[in-house]
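Worked example

This section walks through a single chain of length 461. The input is the sequence exactly as stored; nothing has been trimmed or padded.
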Amino acid sequence: MTKIDIVSGFLGAGKTTLIKKLLAEAYKGEKLVLIENEFGEINIDGGFLKESGIQISEMSAGCICCSLVGDFNKALKDVESQFHPDRILIEPSGVGKLSDVIRAVQGVQSDELVLNGFTTVVDANKCKMYMKNFGEFFNNQVENASAIILSRTEGIRPEKLDAAVDVARVFGRVTPQQKRELVDALHRRGRTVAMTGDGVNDVLALREADCSISMSSGSAAARNVSEIVLADNDFAHMPEVVAEGRRSINNLQRSASLFLVKTVFAAVLALICIVLPPYPFIPIQMSLISTTVIGVPSFVLALEPNKERVRGNFLVNVLSRSLPASGAIIVFLLLELVLGRLLGHEFDEISTVCMIITVVVGLALIYRISQPLTTLRKLLLASMSALAVLACTVGGSFFHVVALPFDVAVATVVFCVLAVLLFERFSTAFERNADTNRFLVAAVERIEGGVPAPRFAKPRK
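Given that input, the structure is written out below as tokens.
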């Protein structure tokens, strides 16, 4: 079987230099054929294979170099049948479209010819200029590449490095200082950065990265600054590590949201009740709220599998979920306290209404953070709703829940509906603009001691 690798790059990017290095090091010992078109950068000499339009010349590394001037598909088949190479390297024209070359190679794939990879070399200093002046051709080479290698990074200015970071996926021959600058450039672009390394020259970048990973066989300096050390030097464990990290963080965010709801509304309600006493809840009612809204749901949600990608700042995510529920509860509890005093309601009636409103909004929060609903989450939501109903009916005397007059019962239903609608409105507004919400960002920065809250990570396009 012959593997086909395409090495593309705009004029002067350095793809020929990369190919020569691959021939001398990475592909040493393999039987190779290098194919380039009439715009290739390597000088060609030798006789023509007239029937297929291929020009052949021997290179110093023992590679056979071919310049295609005829039918591409026929040429590839003729090269494979005549030379039986281990690998064919194709160097397209610098002004050609990579997608066209890939499509042409895919047209001749067989059990004997397999497309292995397609790489684009990008000049770090000129990528922004090329993108502007040669948009269609340059962007085609970048967008269709399976790997992008950045060349000429030495001495590059920060603004050019920032532009190149958006394009490249692979950076070659970078110094320790440049590695750190690449991490900083990604941070400036709002990215979350992971860094792997095992040598002393990786330490600077490992320290700057959001997540640093090293091998146990690496240098002591790299192991000491890394957050994760692979004890058996096997990167195959990384998917498991990432999955467990996602489960822990995502589930912790949901559980923390539930706990914070009670903390916020209880604290604010305590301050309100200094002016408008008494406090509407008794301890046994708070136990019911804690069980149905916080304790059991957070336990179940914390243990279930969750492989969703972690997005944004932890505290911003928690606050954007919990504050809307706390706000809705506080607004309608305050309204009930004021109206209850004005209408002369008994304390037990006010307490019952407040507890029902709090439980209903808490269940609405559970429903929202449980999206998409799975069988387990549906059972959780149904069981907590049933528990709340049983507590208010069968266990009414134990939880000091009293039967409400008809007008008060109707008002309670209306309050619950309006509270849920207000909670949904707040939640939509908070979550849509969580990373730019000044209130949330200021709160997080204050909690974290003045450290600016990181923005949401931007996925690569």
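What to look for: The first helix runs from residue 15 to 26.
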